[in-house]
């Protein structure tokens, strides 16, 4: 039997939800790995709604679960219903929705709060010694919830202009966690905590390199599961 994996979304769209290419890449690699996947999202209002054509906020109100259902092709459940006992692993794609809806990192940085259902999900998988996969900005969730863990969001310096959000690595270190520098096509495995991370769109790279990096994360998660 394939591994049972929960995928947690944060909306639909890079600027206010889950990054669509990252979510799709994770699903493709999970499918290739023979995993049985179920998709979840919190049933909450988005922090904001962004017009992705103009890159500016609108006055709209949208629900994270309803928007995530677009990516899940309608086959999705409320995150409150996720039971870690029914799965072998959990994966969180990135996107600003992680930093806006799953936690308040976008506003509060290292002083952020984490959504109660996101926090309880992470704690449940960690306590059960089941692997947690995170990409792009979502490793900050682990950094906030599990002090002392190891994660990567790419590089800690903006090398050749490819890592414009490199300061995130410093904020992770300030939380008492260890940031491991990795390239976009690599992932880092914190074996002690069974946390696997990759930088994805935290690096300005061709889409296929981001896709491959997410593939290494998914493969490592499935190995640990």
UniProtKB/TrEMBL annotation:
Gene3D superfamilies: 3.40.50.880
Top-level taxon of origin: Eukaryota
CDD domains reported for this sequence: GATase1_ES1
Protein name per Swiss-Prot or TrEMBL: GAL3A protein
Species this chain originates from: Rhipidura dahli
